[in-house]
Design the sequence.
């Protein structure tokens, strides 16, 4: 099998030009990646194209949580929380080296317009734990007194602080989750290429029979022949639908922008992720999250109609979040000069759907009568007036009633997502959340397999995606720490320091054995360009097996250097650029273009324009 490397790009492109595919996926973010892994593993002849780098558009720009959606329980929207926490557990099973448990603190204040009061939070957390299956585990929620909140987070605003809650949430690396799905799809036989843009469709008897594309690196145009096409382009979904000349589609997407800022944890240190009302009485909540000796905070949630390829943080975004975070952490006094890096991304929301992770949802709510009945049952249980079985029975009844509201159609495979098929055969899978990507893909594959069986007469068996691991996830998900230690010791046996090897093992999981194959090349590059061996090793692996083409691909989407190790990135960027140029035999023109792109992104990420 050909390595998933830019060096094999022409070979992959030749296959796209010459072969007949059963499915072409347009879009290489998490949604397209989820469809690709299931399609390839189900025996469907699959191609995927992405006009940028994989996950560049949206899937590398999230809040970097596999978020449980506890916010929905303000409305007791049980269906969405049940879906979310169930899928979160599935993702941790199939990608055990990526999502990691990281309990979330929610302080409560005596203010107008707050999301939760103490009683509602306790009820919501108990319900949340029941849905997540962690009620009797070490991750069960805890209601904290005012003093306990202050002890846990000494810098938190004390005025008006009532109490708090601690409940399970999960850390995530969004772009790593995407590339690991992509890599497994490629291993399973999918032909996948970045920097290839869909420009139109060819038709046979009114049905799409080929995708017209442009190689954005060379300008070459060609067609990819296929039985079916699925549009998984997120915010660009309407753009792809507009290319379909056979159908007049209504506008579907209403993207919103989210912004995050990163500071050193010496400026604001938090012990664990913290989630709180803004205090602006605007119905929003904000995260403050520790990561790699840094602290980041966000997010905004504003309608967006600008350049989809380049959403940026504005002065308005900055002013809003600084006001909110400095209110909740009054000794921090964070200013623009403290911001080291930032990122802005789009949420591909379906127009008319209010189910944002950040601002709540209004679908699937319980009636006031049912809410009061459930809340009173929890209250009676907490006061010792009823037993647990009674509450569990009532909870099961409520969950069953709400979960059956959908019509069972593919369009309801996940809250906030939509699966539709145009008269030309163009399938569009849009909306949803990163946590739901596998479930969304499974719903799409059921429709795709049904259609392909009609078209080809072949039988396909849908892969059991709940247990099918992504690349790097081939180990026991109940023994993550032990597995990571084993993988790290493989690196130690090859001469790496344990700390370096463990860092690599956490990123690459069971692919650590593949990574170590490139150690001789990495050591040679490290010596030649005065680069730490561990960085050179990750880089060579990314060049050989993760389709890295530019320094930005490596710094922004295969690693976290750009956002969370910014100073270190500045130190090593020239060496990394030289290694990429040498390894891929790039022209001077390509090298210069990549240098300009990196410089522009550094300027944007560090908010240079705002600071000047």
Sequence:
């Amino acid at each position: 099998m050909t390595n998933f490397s830019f060096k094999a790009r022409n070979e992959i492109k030749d296959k796209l030009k010459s072969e007949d595919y059963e499915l072409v996926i347009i879009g290489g973010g998490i949604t397209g990646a989820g469809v690709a892994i299931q399609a390839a593993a189900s025996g469907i002849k699959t191609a995927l194209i992405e006009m940028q780098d994989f996950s560049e558009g949206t899937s590398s720009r999230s809040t970097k949580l596999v978020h449980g959606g506890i916010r929905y329980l303000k409305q007791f929207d049980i269906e969405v929380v049940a879906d979310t926490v169930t899928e979160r557990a599935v993702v941790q099973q199939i990608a055990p080296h990526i999502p990691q448990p990281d309990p979330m603190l929610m302080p409560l204040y005596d203010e107008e317009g707050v999301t939760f009061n103490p009683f509602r939070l306790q009820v919501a957390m108990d319900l949340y734990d029941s849905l997540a299956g962690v009620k009797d585990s070490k991750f069960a929620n805890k209601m904290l007194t005012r003093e306990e909140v202050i002890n846990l987070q000494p810098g938190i605003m004390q005025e008006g602080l009532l109490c708090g809650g601690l409940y399970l949430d999960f850390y995530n690396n969004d772009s790593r989750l995407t590339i690991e799905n992509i890599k497994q799809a490629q291993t399973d036989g999918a032909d996948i290429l970045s920097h290839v843009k869909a420009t139109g469709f060819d038709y046979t008897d009114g049905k799409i029979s080929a995708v017209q594309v442009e190689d954005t690196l060379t300008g070459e145009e060609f067609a990819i022949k296929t039985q079916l096409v699925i549009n998984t382009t997120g915010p660009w979904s309407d753009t792809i639908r507009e290319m379909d000349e056979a159908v007049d589609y209504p506008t579907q997407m209403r993207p919103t922008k989210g912004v995050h800022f990163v500071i050193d944890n010496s400026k604001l240190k938090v012990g664990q992720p913290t989630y709180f009302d803004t205090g602006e009485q605007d119905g929003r909540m904000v995260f403050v999250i520790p990561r790699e000796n840094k602290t980041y905070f966000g997010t905004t949630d504003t309608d967006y109609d600008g350049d989809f390829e380049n959403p940026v943080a504005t002065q308005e975004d900055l002013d809003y979040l600084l006001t909110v975070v400095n209110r909740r952490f009054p000794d921090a006094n964070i200013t623009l000069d403290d911001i080291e890096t930032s990122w802005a991304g789009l949420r591909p929301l379906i127009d008319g759907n209010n189910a944002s992770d950040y601002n709540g949802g209004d679908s699937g709510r319980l009636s006031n009568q049912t809410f009061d009945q459930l809340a009173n049952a929890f209250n009676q249980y907490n006061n010792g007036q009823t037993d647990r079985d009674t509450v569990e029975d009532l909870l099961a009844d409520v969950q069953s009633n709400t979960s059956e509201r959908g019509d069972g159609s593919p369009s309801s495979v996940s809250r906030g997502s939509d699966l539709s098929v145009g008269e030309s055969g163009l399938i569009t899978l849009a909306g949803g959340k990163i946590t739901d990507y596998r479930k969304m893909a499974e719903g799409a594959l059921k429709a795709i397999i049904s259609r392909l069986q009609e078209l080809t007469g072949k039988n396909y068996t849908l892969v059991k995606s709940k247990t099918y691991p992504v690349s790097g996830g081939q180990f026991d998900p109940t023994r993550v720490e032990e597995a990571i230690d084993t993988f790290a010791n493989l690196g130690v046996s090859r001469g790496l320091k344990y700390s370096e090897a463990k860092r690599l093992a956490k990123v690459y999981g069971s692919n650590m054995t593949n990574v170590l194959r490139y150690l001789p090349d990495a050591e040679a590059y490290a010596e030649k360009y005065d680069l730490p061996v561990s960085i050179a090793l990750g880089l060579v692996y990314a060049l050989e097996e993760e389709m890295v083409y530019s320094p930005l691909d490596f710094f922004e989407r295969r690693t976290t250097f750009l956002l969370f190790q910014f100073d270190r990135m500045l130190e090593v960027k020239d060496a990394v650029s030289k290694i990429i140029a040498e390894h891929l035999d790039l022209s001077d023109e390509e090298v210069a273009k990549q240098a300009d792109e990196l410089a522009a992104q550094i300027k944007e990420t560090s908010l240079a324009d705002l600071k000047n």
Notes: Residues 365-376+384-404 form one domain. The CA atoms of residues 155 and 329 lie 6 Å apart. Residues 437-456 form the longest helix (20 residues). The chain is about 40% helix and 20% strand.
